[in-house]
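To whoever picks this up:

The nightly regression suite flagged Ribonuclease R as changed. Nothing in the input moved, so I suspect the structure step. Input below, exactly as stored in the fixture:
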Amino acid sequence: MTEIEGTVNGHRDGHGFVQRDDGEPDLYLSPQEMRAVLHRDRVRARILRFDRKGRPEGRVVDIIERRKTPIIGRLLHEGGSWIVAPEDKRYGQDILIPKNAAANARAGQVVSVELTEPPSMYSQPVGRVAEVLGEIDDPGMEIEIAVRKYEVPHRFSPEALAQAAALPDKLRAADLKHRVDLRDVPLVTIDGEDARDFDDAVYCEPHVQGKGKKASKGWRLLVAIADVSHYVKPGEALDDDAFERATSVYFPRRVIPMLPEKLSNGLCSLNPEVDRLSMVCDMLVSAEGEVTAYQFYPAVICSHARLTYTEVAAALLNSRGPEATRRAALMPQLLDLLDVYRALLKARAQRGAVDFETTETQIVCDDNGRIEKIVPRTRTEAHRLIEEAMLAANVCAADFIAGAEHASLYRVHEGPTPEKRQTLQNYLRALGLGLSVSDDPKPGEFQAIAAATKDRPDAQQIHTMLLRSMQQAIYTPANSGHFGLAYQAYTHFTSPIRRYPDLLVHRVIKAILQSRRYHLSTGELVGAPVRKGGKPPRGQAAELERWEQVGAHCSANERRADEASRDVEAWLKCRYMRERLGEEYSGTVSAVTTFGVFVTLDALYVEGLVHITELGSEYFRFDEARQELRGERSGQRYAVGARVRVQVSRVDLDGRRIDFRMVREGESDRLLAKGRPTGKERLAPLERVEAEDRVQKRATKAAKARQSPSGRTGAGKAKSKTSPRQDAASGKTSSRRKATRRR
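Regenerated output under the current build:
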C-alpha cells in the first residue's frame, strides 16, 4: 500500500501510467482510474498490487496539480451538445463545451480549449474555447496543432523581441576588442540548400609539424562558430526564452527557432561577405587523423562564400567541372578539407566508432504544405567532411572543459543496459552468426558485427537490432563518454544558434579563457578555476545539481522537439497515403511486434502496419530472440528485412496510422481479373470467416422456419434478429466516431 508521487501519462487505449518521481517503474492505472484524471496531471497514487510480471498497479488517492495548458481538438456538435475531441488521444475523454463558451467556432474547426471544470469519476471535463485555429485542411494546420499539442513555445516574449530589436544591425568597434581578426582567412559555410541560419564556417590548409627528420605533414583546421553568447547574456529576456525552448524545432517548410530571427538569420548567422563574431577552434591534425594541438579564441570573421553540399560534392567529384570552375579560388582549401576528412575518418575507424549506413528521407511539399514527394536524402562526402570537422571541434571543447575541471554539459551516450545487451546476445545467438558482444561491450564490437554482416540479406535487420540495443544520448554534467562515437569526452559546441547546451558550453569556454568560472545559477563569472587537487569552491554541490536540472531540461525538450516533428510528418504522410487507398506497393519489413509487422514502402518511403490478423488465418507466435512472427501451422516467417507486397487498406488521419494488408502471390492477378474486390473480399480474414458463419446461420434458421408450422412468422423473426445493419456493427458506435470515419 505504498504511496508515490508522479505525473500521469495517458494511453490512447484508455488506461494510463504514473511516471514516478523516484525513477522506479511506472504505476499502471486502469481506465476506471483514468476517468478522474487527465494526461500530464500531477498525482499521488497508492500501489495496490503487482501483476504476474511484477509490474505495479495502483489507484489515485490525490490530485496534486492539474495541468493548466490548453488542449487542442476538433469542435463537434452531437445530439444538441458541443464537445471537443482532443487531438492528443492520450487525454482519453471528450470535453463538454457550454453553448455560450464556443467563441463563435463552427463544427469541425480546430480549437484550443481551457478547462473550467476538471473531470471526476462521474462527469466529463468541461471547458471553453480559448482560440479558434481554423479548418483542419488549412495549410500548415498540422504544425499549429503540433506546437500546441506538445507545448512547444512558439511566441517570443515582448521583452525578448524588444531586446532583439534594440541590437545593432552591424558590428561596432567595441565588439571587435580582444578578438583575433580572421577576416582575411577564406572561411566558408557549407550547408543544405534550404538552410537559413549558418552556425559554422570552416577553413583548412596544409601544415608541417616538427622540424628536420621529425617533420610530418598534416593540416591546420579552423572551425569558426557563431558567437551567440556575445549577444545573449544570462538573466536577460533573450536568454530566458532561449532556455525555455532549449532547441529549434524543424518542420517541413517551417522552423520554430530558439532565437528571434534578427539573431538566428541575421546578426549571429555567418552570412557571406559580412563581418561576424565567432568562437574559433583552431586545430592541428596529423596525417593519421589525430588532433595533436588545439586552441580556442574569440575572433571576427568574414565568410568568403555560402556553399551547398550539392555543389561542393560535385566540385570534389570533378575538379574540372562547372562547379569547380565557378569556385576555382576556393578549390585548394576544399581539396584540403577533403584530405583532412579522410584522415579523420581513418582515425574514426581505428577508434571503432559505430557508423551504420541508414536511409534518411526528405519531404518535399507543394505550395499548400502538402507532400509532393518523399525522396531519399543522399549523404555525400561534402556532408561527411563537415560532420567530421564538427566532431573534432566538439571533442576539443569537451577536452578543454574537462582539463580545466569546470562544470558543464557533456553529450553522453552510454553503452547498452544489461537487459538490452542480453536481448542482443540472444538475438545474435539465435541467428547462429558466431558473433556476440562481451559483458562490457565496446563500440568496436558493434562496428565489427555491422562490418561482418553488411553483405548478408538480413543486414538491415541486424543493424536495426544493434541500434535498438543502445541508449539514448542525453545532456548531463557527469562525463561518461560517448559510446557510439567512441569518445571519452564529448560535448556540443558547434550549434549555439539552435541548441541551448552549445550556448552554455561557449560561456564556459569564455570563462576558462579568462581564468574565471561561469556560475550557472547566477550567470556570473566568479573567482579562478580550481586547479587539480585544489579545494572545491563553496556551493559546488548545489551548482552541480543546477547543471543536472538544466541538462535534464534540455534533454526533455530535445525529445519534445523530435516528437512534434515526427507527429507533423506522420500527419502529412497519412494525408499523402489517403489518396492511395487500394494501391499496391512492394516494401520491406522494418519492425516486428506481437501485434503485427511494420512495412516501409520502397517507392514512397512511408511506413504502415500489417496487423497480425492480416497475416493469415493461422496463429502467429512472436519470437523475441529472433525478432520475428512465425505461423504455427505453415511455418511462414516475417522478420525485419523480409520483402513483401502490400495494399494500402486504411488510413487513420486522427490516429496518425496507416494500415496495410498482405497481397499473396497471384492475388493481384486474381483481383484484377475479377475487378475491384467487393463484399467478403474486402473484409479482413477474421471478419470474412465471421461473415460466412453469419450467412450460414441465417440459412439454417430460415430452413427451420420454413419447416415450422408458423414458418412465415419464424422467418420474419430470424430476419429481424440478424438484420444487415446489426451484422455490420460490432457494438454501439458514437456519432463522433462515425463522423471521423466519414471524414
